[in-house]
Amino acid sequence: MSGATTIRRAALNDLLAIYDIERKSFNHPYGFVVFLTLLASPSSLFLVAEDSGRVVGYAVARVEERNALLLSIAVHPQHRRRGVGALLLRSIIRQLPEEVEYLDLQVAVSNSAAISFYEKHGFEKVGKIPRYYKDGEDAYIMRLALTS
Ligand SMILES: CC(C)(COP(=O)(O)OP(=O)(O)OC[C@H]1O[C@@H](n2cnc3c(N)ncnc32)[C@H](O)[C@@H]1OP(=O)(O)O)[C@@H](O)C(=O)NCCC(=O)NCCS
Predict the structure, then answer these.
(1) pTM of the entire structure?
(2) Cβ contact 104:67 at 8 Å
(3) What is the whole-number distance in angstroms between the Cα of residue 117 and the centre of ligand 1?
(4) Among the atoms of ligand 1, which is closest to the Cα of residue 74?
(5) How many percent of the chain have pLDDT more than 90?
């Protein structure tokens, strides 16, 4: 069982653990340099979930003026379905600047686990991007309207 999970800002020291989770979670993972760049960017909101001193998940969003894009969220396979993803997503939403009206994301149409997770948190499918991924798979655009 997991102990108390805490959410905090990601730091340089977390990147190897984040990258490990990324590679375990996606067929086409982001490269390490992408995470370095996101960590250094002032428009990123980059959080990790920590359990017993170990990073077990992360979420990163890019904040634009009135909307934000959830670039990635992943939980270590051994820690899934215990609410860690929910904690991360709720923390991202809470920490977005007040003027942000929408949180958008893209998700592979076959990723039913993630789609169900997002729908549970109020996201709706608002569009589809044909052949969004390298392997030719389409992506849904999902959107959460934020109310202040
Ligand atoms: C999506 C993800 C971040 C959810 O994290 P999590 O910690 O497991 O999520 P939570 O425990 O907070 O929420 C679980 C809910 O998500 C949905 N869900 C998660 N995994 C699921 C699965 N395998 N099948 C169906 N629904 C699933 C369900 O609604 C579930 O609720 P339930 O357990 O009451 O049925 C995690 O599955 C993950 O890392 N997936 C791989 C990376 C990924 O696809 N990220 C999204 C890319 S757009």
Answers:
(1) 0.96
(2) yes
(3) 5
(4) 39
(5) 94
For the ranges 11-15, 32-36, 85-89, 133-137, the lowest mean pLDDT is seen at 133-137
3-class DSSP assignment, residue 60: strand
C-beta neighbour count of 144 within 10 angstroms? 19
CATH no. for 5-145:
3.40.630.30
Helical ranges in the chain per DSSP H: 15-25, 32-40, 84-95, 112-120
For the chain, the straight-line distance linking the first and the last C-alpha, in angstroms and rounded, comes to 35
The total of other beta-carbon atoms located within 10 Å of residue 129's CB is: 13
**Structure token pair of residue 76:** 């270590």
- Which atom of ligand 1 lies nearest, measured to the CA of 79? 7
